[in-house]
## 1
Amino acid sequence: MIDLYSAATPNGHKVSIALEEMKLPYTLHTLDLQQNTQKEDWFLAINPNGRIPAIVDRAEDNFAVFESGAILLYLAEKTGLLMPAERKGRSRVTQWLMFQMGGIGPMMGQANVFFRYFPEKIQPAIDRYQGETKRLFRVLDKHLESHEYLAGDYSIADIANWAWVRTHNWSGVAIDDLPHLRRWVEAIRQRPAVQLGLLQPPSERDLTRASADAADAAETAERYAKAVRSMVEMGQSNKQT
Ligand SMILES: N[C@@H](CCC(=O)N[C@@H](CS)C(=O)NCC(=O)O)C(=O)O
């Protein structure tokens, strides 16, 4: 049995989607990020970085894994699923996984901070992170023009990138002009395991919605942004983890 420590974010959903795809039994422990549960000592013993997601594999002497990319690799190796066995195929999956971990995730994350959560609007920072996100989206779109999935068959690389790209509206980056990326986003959205994984735990706010929402949805968005903003500010004042 695996214990999953998570929250309703793209990094968290990557792992719950992979666990559902692999049909691995797991127990979800939802951490309240706004209460800083992820900085408590018991959790730092699992993930010294004080962030979700993390897993503990009870069947492997309580082996703990943190960093969502490392968790996906661990689960793929444990099950032999969603990652090819031969060296070049594994490398292709790892390349697109790292593309997400080092590019899509950090750039969309910073676009969210400056576009949604930061108390001041610093337009050059918003432009920088949204622009870089769009550039990375174009790289994906171009690749997906001639590939059904990112690296051979559907893999952990698709899960990792998809969990972020699907929330592009929250980062304020459109994908209307990227038809291959849109085709891939829609195809993965249809997978039953993906739909189950997105409910572990469910999002308070649907981050996929377009910004031109009805007034009530805009209000929910602002409430959600406010809550995350306080977490971002708390993180800035926190000298430790
Ligand atoms: N590189 C890490 C990033 C983890 C991360 O930033 N997690 C966020 C949620 S998506 C978090 O725990 N934030 C709470 C905090 O910053 O205290 C991973 O991929 O696992």
## 2
Amino acid sequence: MKLAIAFGLLLSLLAVSAAAERFDFFYFVQQWPGSYCDTWRGCCFPDSGKPAADFGIHGLWPNYAQCHGRYGLARAVLGDDAFFSIVGRRGRCWPQYCGGDYDDNALRPWEIRDLIASLERSWPTLSCKSGRSFEFWSYEWKKHGTCSNLEPHDYFARALALKAAHNLTAILAGAGIVPSATETYSVSSVSDAITQGTGFTANLDCNRDADGESQLYQVFMCVDREAKRLIDCPLHKRSKCSDQVKLPLF
Ligand SMILES: *[C@@H]1O[C@H](CO)[C@@H](O)[C@H](O)[C@H]1NC(C)=O
């Protein structure tokens, strides 16, 4: 009896895992390279060379409008190992690893070969783990892209198109917010500039430089499920920014 229930659940889970992911929106996350690099941790430049002093893509992340406990019963019955091997490591606030954490879900270079030059410019790695930006894209694909209901080429092409359509570096510069070693800017002026420039309000994420000063690190824009248009964010992240933030040189 127990076995039959578990088997039934298994079958329905397999059906669910093959179906479209139900998420509500994407976070399109861009990072300021100066703020990535000047923390105590530091950074490394990719094999393709020092990136431009421009916001770079961190990721395009499917997200739920509300956190919830997915498949709680199935997980309890199957146990974590079996559960995760079937449905992947879906989290409570966003889906992730929708194809599981397997190598056969890795991104293949030929799938995005015509995008590689643009990705190297717009989505460079700054991690010291590897100078190969491809590993960054592949990680993002496995963790987030596999939950996007998009093919790899569309997933990366749409992220690039979003970045090109809303140039944060230019939008901020237009409001007098330019990289500087000493200047600080009010968070509200940064936020207002982005709202003016894109038509939508962003969530801002800050980190601290090696001296402990607050600086603009990442900008989260919300995007529709097709990854084509900005939308009003269904939820607002709590900002860790101080009232005044830096935008360090890179
Ligand atoms: C964004 O704008 C900046 C500043 O005007 C410029 O240097 C950069 O090349 C632009 N980026 C893209 C991807 O067009």
